[in-house]
Amino acid sequence: MDVMLIVKTVLSMGGVALVAGVVLYLAAKKFAVFEDPLIGEVEALLPGVNCGGCGQAGCHAFAEKLVETKDLKHYCPVGGSATAGEIAATLGLEATFTHKVVARVYCNGGTNAVKAGEYLGIESCAAMAVNNSSDLVCTYGCLGLADCVKACPFDAIHMENGVALVDDEKCTACSKCIVACPRALIEMAPYATKIYVACKSPDPGAVVRKYCSVGCIGCKACVKACEFDAVSCEGALAIVKPAECTECMKCIVACKPTTIRLSRIAEGKEASAHGAHV
């Protein structure tokens, strides 16, 4: 056995490894990207669901944006005001709290809407919309195949009587249901205001009556009933203005097609209050 050959081999291999290690070390130093440790601190305060509701790709990207801009207008809807306060303290800023918003489905058609046939395609609202194969006569109504329900990571939206309904208490305003709805029937609205017009059809009342028993017919009875100028009509469609609404309920009483409604949580509270007074 040639001992010297073995020694030379070991030394040469060790030399190569040493040189490679030095090169890698120097490269790592030269091309290292510094990350502000505040980014990690802020990210640790976030819920970690990576829902994209903040407008960023995920929680890490959101933390980077906050640390870079020090602008608390960048808001995590899932974490809410409590998380915003913690982030502000970490960044040495004064907390500015954003009012909570929730998703609302502006349709109450479902089983109240007239169907023109039976849909036999893929069980997806997006597929139905792409193929223009909806079985609804109304071209503005909820398609009822629950794409929004499947998209929600917080179990905050469910199908009831063929139409999507949002649970205000569970909704985090992540906006995934909005993206999932091919008919743009879901919008963000102030959590504090519970009254809304559950319809998006701009058709004249005479047309709406033919395809939906709960669609807005533009009769303006709600506008006349409201004493706070909180309800208006844009064409044939009533609109509730959240900033002016006092939830006096007069518009709901005046609406004969029952298009104006309370959010699901508010309906539950109303029912509980009614039961307590009986």
In short:
Helix content is 39%, strand content 12%.
Describe this structure in words.
The chain is elongated and about 100 Å long. The strands form four sheets. Strands 1-4 form a two-stranded antiparallel sheet. It folds into two domains: 37-91, Orthogonal Bundle (3-methyladenine DNA Glycosylase II, Chain A, domain 3), CATH 1.10.15; 101-272, Alpha-Beta Plaits (2-Layer Sandwich). The chain is built from eleven helices and eight strands. α2 packs across α3 and α2 runs antiparallel to α4 (80-91). Residues 271-278 have low confidence and may be disordered. A hairpin with a 2-residue loop joins β2 (157-160) and β3 (163-166). 39% of the residues lie in helices and 12% in strands. The protein starts with a helix and ends with a helix. With 278 residues, it is α+β, with helices and mostly antiparallel strands.
What Rg is obtained from the alpha carbons, in whole angstroms? 28 Å
On the 0-100 scale, what is the average pLDDT? 87
The unreliable regions are 271-278
Distance between the termini: 103 Å
State the secondary-structure class.
alpha+beta
Tally of individual helices: 11
Shape: elongated
Measured by DSSP, the beta-strand proportion falls in 5-15%
The overall number of domains is 2
Oligomer: single chain
Largest sheet: 2 strands, antiparallel
* Order of SSEs: HHHHEHHEEHEEHHEEHEH
CATH class of the largest domain: Alpha Beta
Q: Give a count of the beta strands, DSSP E runs of length 2 or more.
A: 8
Tell me the CATH topology of the largest domain.
Alpha-Beta Plaits
The second-level CATH architecture of the largest domain is 2-Layer Sandwich
User: How much helicity do the residues have?
Assistant: 25-40%
Strand order of the largest sheet: 1-4
